[in-house]
C-alpha cells in the first residue's frame, strides 16, 4: 500500500511523462479534436501546440463535479491560455464550451465546420511543408519566451536565427 506522498510522486511522474512528452516534443504537436475533450483529455489537448476542432467538438473540465481537482496541467494551461478568471469559471462551473466559443476564447486555434478531415489534412500538409528545423527552433523560442524576460528571449532568438540561416533548409 502506497503512502499519500508515494501516490503523489507516482502521479506527478506519470503526468510529467505524458504531458512532458507533448511539451518537449521537438516538432509542433497538433491536437485534432473531432469530438469532446473532457477531463484529462482536455488537459492533454491544451498541452498541444495547436488545437483544431470540428463543429462537434466541445470541452468540459468536469473535475469538481466528480470531486476531483484536475491533473495533467489543466490548471496551468487554462490559466496561461485564458487567464485566472476564465480558468476558474471552467473548473468551477463545469459547463460545456462548444466549438464556436472554444475558438473565440482561444481553446481552439482553428475550427473546421465542414469537411473536417480534408481541412485537417490540408492544414497538416501545409505544416509539414514548412522548414521542420525552423519550426523546432520557433517552438523553443516561444516556450522559452513564456518563462523568461525579453533580454534573454532576444538572445535565444538571435542564436536560433543564425542557426536556421546556416541550415540546409534556409532558402
Give helix and strand order, one letter per element, not per position.
HEEHEEHHEHEHHH
**Strands, count:** 6
| Structural class designation | mainly alpha
Could you estimate the helical fraction of the residues in percent?
A: 55-70%
Note the total helix count. Answer: 8
Backbone shape: globular
Average pLDDT: 96
- Spans where pLDDT lies below 50 across 5 or more residues: none
Can you characterise this structure?
The structure is a single chain. The chain has 171 residues and is mainly alpha-helical. Helices cover 57% and strands 11% of the residues. The protein contains eight helices and six strands, in the order αββαββααβαβααα. It has helices at residues 4-24, 40-46, 74-82, 84-93, 99-105, 116-129, 132-145, 150-165; strands at residues 30-33, 37-38, 50-54, 58-60, 97-98, 110-112. Helix 3 packs across helix 4 and helix 7 runs antiparallel to helix 8. The longest helix is centred in the first third of the chain and has 21 residues, at 4-24. It is globular, with a radius of gyration of 18 Å. 20% of the residues are buried. The mean pLDDT is 96.
Amino acid at each position: 500500500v502506497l503512502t499519500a506522498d508515494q501516490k503523489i510522486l507516482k502521479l506527478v511522474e506519470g503526468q510529467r511523462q505524458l504531458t512532458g512528452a507533448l511539451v518537449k516534443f521537438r516538432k509542433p504537436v497538433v491536437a485534432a479534436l473531432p469530438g469532446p475533450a473532457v477531463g484529462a483529455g482536455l488537459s492533454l489537448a491544451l498541452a498541444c501546440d495547436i488545437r483544431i476542432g470540428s463543429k462537434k467538438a466541445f470541452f468540459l473540465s468536469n473535475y469538481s463535479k466528480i470531486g476531483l481537482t484536475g491533473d495533467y496541467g489543466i490548471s496551468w494551461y487554462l490559466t496561461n491560455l485564458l487567464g485566472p478568471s476564465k480558468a476558474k469559471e471552467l473548473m468551477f462551473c463545469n459547463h460545456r464550451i462548444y466549438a464556436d466559443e472554444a475558438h473565440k476564447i482561444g481553446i481552439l486555434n482553428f475550427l473546421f465546420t465542414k469537411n473536417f478531415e480534408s481541412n485537417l489534412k490540408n492544414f497538416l500538409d501545409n505544416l509539414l511543408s514548412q522548414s521542420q528545423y525552423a519550426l523546432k527552433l520557433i517552438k523553443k523560442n516561444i516556450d522559452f519566451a513564456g518563462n523568461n524576460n525579453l533580454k534573454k528571449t532576444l538572445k535565444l532568438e538571435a542564436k536560433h536565427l543564425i542557426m536556421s540561416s546556416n541550415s540546409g533548409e534556409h532558402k
